[in-house]
Structure formats: structure tokens, C-alpha cells
Design goal:
Blueprint lengths: L11 E2 L4 E2 L2 E7 L9 H17 L3 E8 L2 E7 L6 H19 L4 H4 L11 E4 L5 H9 L6
Antiparallel strand pairs: 1-2, 3-5, 3-6, 4-5
Helix pairs in contact: 1-2
Organism: Micromonospora fluostatini
Protein name: IS200/IS605 family transposase
InterPro entries: Transposase_17 (IPR002686), Transposase_17_sf (IPR036515)
Length: about 140
């Protein structure tokens, strides 16, 4: 009987490696300003999925509220999580500022959407299904 990890879709396989790296990320808006509506969250998710694809990273789950977003990312060991985070925040801020000009004054204080800080946690301690369920349950503005 082969080990369970040989058939697990979360496992990335290389020539000599077997890896499962997943992180739960949370980004908050500058000064926790409540700026996101459903349209902005939907576009933010699309932008972040594209950034993840550029990094050979998969955005497994995304959700948020008016002042923060949650992401569950599955990434290879060649990706520095801090570089991924900087790109996710930078690209999403630029795109949303360009596309939601009517909300620019409220959302982008001094050209910044996101707080410079972020939360990142390895998902190895909890089953990924638990983290996914938590992110799915985050409330989107109505």
C-alpha cells in the first residue's frame, strides 16, 4: 500500500522533494478604514489570483470584510512569502486605485490601500479544511 501523501493533491512533487506549503494571510486596510464593497472584493480576488499565478502559487481561498481580506495560498519552496505578500499588496493597490476612482479618496490614504503590516500563519498545524472553512465564513459586505 502506498503512503497517503502520494495521492494527495496538496502535495507538490519535485525531482527529489515532496512538499506541502500553505499559508493563511490577512491584509488590513490602512487605519482599518472600511473601504471594501462586494465589487472591490471581487476584483481584489481576481487581481490576487493573477499575482499568485505569476508566482506559480495557487490562491486556494479568498474572502474579506470592509477593512481586511483573508487568503489561503499554496506555494512552492522557491517562493519567498514576503516577496509574494509585497506583490499581492502592491499590485492590488495599484489596480484597485485605477479601477475604482470614485472611491479613491476614501480608500487610498496617501496612495496606500494596505497597512504596511500583515498576518501570515503556516497551515501545517491545522487541517487545511478548517482554515478554508474559517475563511469562507468571513463576512462580505452586503
Amino acid at each position: 500500500m502506498s503512503p497517503r501523501w502520494t495521492h494527495d493533491p496538496d502535495i507538490r512533487r519535485g525531482r527529489s522533494t515532496v512538499i506541502n506549503l500553505q499559508a493563511h494571510l490577512v491584509f488590513v486596510t490602512k487605519y482599518r478604514r472600511g473601504v471594501f464593497d462586494d465589487a472591490m472584493l471581487t476584483r481584489c480576488e481576481q487581481v490576487m489570483r493573477n499575482v499568485c499565478a505569476d508566482f506559480d502559487t495557487e490562491l486556494r481561498e479568498f474572502n474579506g470584510e470592509d477593512d481586511h481580506v483573508h487568503l489561503l495560498v499554496h506555494y512552492p519552496p522557491t517562493v519567498a512569502l514576503s516577496r509574494l505578500v509585497n506583490s499581492l499588496k502592491g499590485v492590488s493597490s495599484r489596480r484597485l486605485r485605477q479601477e475604482f476612482t470614485d472611491r479613491t479618496d476614501q480608500a487610498f490614504l496617501h496612495g496606500r490601500l494596505w497597512s504596511p503590516s500583515y498576518f501570515a500563519a503556516s497551515c501545517e498545524g491545522a487541517p487545511v479544511s478548517t482554515v478554508r472553512q474559517y475563511i469562507e465564513q468571513q463576512k462580505r459586505p452586503g
